[in-house]
Design brief:
Layout lengths: L3 H7 L5 H8 L1 H10 L4 H16 L11 H13 L5 H26 L3 H28 L3 H4 L1 H38 L6 H30 L2 H29 L1 H15 L11 H11 L2 H14 L2 H10 L4 H9 L9 H9 L4 H51 L6 H33 L5 H25 L3 H18 L6
Membrane topology: Multi-pass membrane protein
Protein name: Solute carrier family 40 member
Subcellular location: Membrane
Length: 501
């Protein structure tokens, strides 16, 4: 045990009061338990999160805001009668998170809170502004695909790359707020505070899902697609500075966040000790070179370098967690088109469902999802987090049976409405399951691994999301699916006697 003077020498940035708190860690937590968080600070957190989520599309297949709702409609209009452009956009966006998600998590873990906050909001809003401008260029020149192929390709590439950069920057913000800040804020407070914070933040997400598509759908239906793209760019310009001011005030207004950031600064300030090779390393290396050919030795060295890279280290950390199986279960839900995502939106548009109807359908699903954020705290307190997750996933599966039934509807419009109904009802179980898995990760993952695990989790989710969009690329023409379905029916009719029909 160090005395006060020794602690001052080891941690010179600590004040005298902080040293006292450090020595009396148990009393420090008791004090935090009785120290309520300012209502105005929490309001700034919620409002800042709302503004950041309204125009953004983070890496959640089931959270669809202004951009994610609009981009499917933009792409189906840029390349009519095909899901190719919508699927290609989804592939680029999902692949970027699959590849770089673990690295984003490590970057967040190795950066200070203010740095992550600035990078997140600046990059996210700038990327959506660029994407909005390029989409405007595609929409105002509908014949550009034929008249100027090079310009058309350039605008499409810029749109896809801007979306990919935006989703990575938003992932950094998601890890910062939802995986780190809420845990630090709730630490040492009442036992159910973390559950409440998670539920309210998810409620804000789903409120954006409720209102943003409805507003955008009416703009598209009663004004134009171009007007919606213009409004998206203007929104991100106006809201960027307000988002930063609100979230920065949260960081400054909650002492536990400043203390956690101070620990990060201390960790980053410690010089990395270079590993000293053992005395016999040169001889061992020479022996290896003698025993193996030069190519084999270089290959072995390359494999070792890859295995020791930050990317592989992040995956090793993830697979060592106790919440591995729940995390993988949540990720597998992303391998589906049964959500109001880009492909489903484009398919409904192809079936001549008006944009405002699609937006309203999304809104109804969001209302059901919002109800999950009220039901989850009620159930979690009574039957534990684990049992709540088990109940919710079976609830989702049952509701999705309606979507299976829509396959046999002969009328395309009726089939679309059955599909939207099943997806909307399933959101109750889906969001309760999501909250239960997230809270298990928050409770069981160590603080040092929290951001890394969050980055890898989003990477796995994006991988399965990517597989969905690859399927969309393979079957990019909706009419081909209809023709294949009726071909199977006709074949069955030829094989079975007519009196059975």
């Amino acid at each position: 045990m160090y005395n006060d003077r020794e602690m001052e020498e080891l941690h010179p940035v600590y004040t005298e009061d902080e040293q006292l708190l450090h020595h009396h860690h148990h009393h420090h937590h008791n004090h935090n338990h009785d120290d309520p968080i300012s209502t105005s600070v929490l309001f700034n957190l919620y409002l800042g999160h709302f503004l950041a989520r309204w125009g953004a599309r983070p890496n959640f297949k089931f959270i669809n805001r202004t951009w994610e709702f609009s981009v499917g409609l933009y792409m189906i209009n840029v390349w009519p009668d095909s899901l190719l452009m919508a699927a290609a956009y989804g592939v680029v966006e999902s692949a970027s998170t699959t590849l770089f998600g673990p690295l984003v998590g490590q970057w967040v873990d190795n950066s200070t809170y203010p740095k992550v906050l600035r990078f997140w909001l600046l990059t996210q809003n700038l990327s959506f502004i660029i994407a909005g401008v390029t989409v405007i260029g595609l929409l105002v020149s509908p014949d550009l695909r034929v008249t100027n192929t090079l310009t058309f390709a350039l605008l499409v590439v810029l749109t896809n790359l801007s979306g990919a950069v935006a989703v990575l920057s938003t992932l950094a913000g998601t890890i910062l707020v939802e995986r780190d800040w809420v845990v630090v804020i709730a630490e040492g407070k009442s036992s159910n505070l973390l559950t409440k914070l998670n539920s309210i933040i998810r409620r804000i997400d789903l409120s954006c899902t409720l209102f943003a598509p409805v507003v955008t759908g009416f703009i598209i239906s009663f004004v134009s697609l171009t007007a919606s793209a213009v409004s998206l760019a203007i929104w991100n310009i106006l809201s960027a500075f307000l988002q930063y001011w609100l979230l920065n005030s949260v960081y400054k207004g909650i002492p536990s966040l400043s203390e956690s950031n101070r620990k990060r600064e201390l960790k980053l300030a410690m010089p990395n000790q270079p590993e000293q090779a053992p005395p016999s390393s040169y001889q061992e290396q020479t022996t290896q070179q003698n025993n193996y050919s030069e190519d084999a030795f270089m290959l072995k060295k390359l494999i070792k370098r890859v295995f020791d890279s930050q990317f592989c280290c992040a995956w090793r950390v993830y697979f060592q967690q106790d919440v591995l199986l729940p995390g993988l279960s949540l990720a597998l839900l992303y391998f589906t088109v049964l959500s109001f995502g880009t492909l489903m939106t484009a398919k409904l548009e192809w079936n001549k469902i008006p944009a405002y109807i699609i937006g309203t359908g999304r809104g109804m699903s969001a209302i059901i999802g919002i109800s999950a954020t009220f039901l989850y705290p009620f159930m979690e307190v009574r039957i534990t987090t684990l049992r709540t997750g088990l109940w919710s996933i079976w609830s989702q599966w049952t509701c999705l049976l309606i979507c299976v039934g829509s396959i046999w509807a002969k009328n395309n419009t009726a089939s679309s409405y059955l599909l939207m109904t099943g997806v909307s009802l399933s959101r109750l179980g889906l969001w309760m399951f999501d909250l239960s898995v997230i809270q298990q990760m928050q409770d069981q993952v160590p603080e040092s691994d929290r951001a890394v695990v969050g980055g890898v989790q989003n990477s796995i989710q994006s991988f399965w999301d990517l597989m969905t969009y690859i399927m969309g690329l393979i079957i990019s023409n909706p009419q081909s699916m209809v023709d294949a379905y009726y071909a199977i029916i006709d074949k069955q009719r030829l094989q079975i006697p007519n009196e059975t029909f």
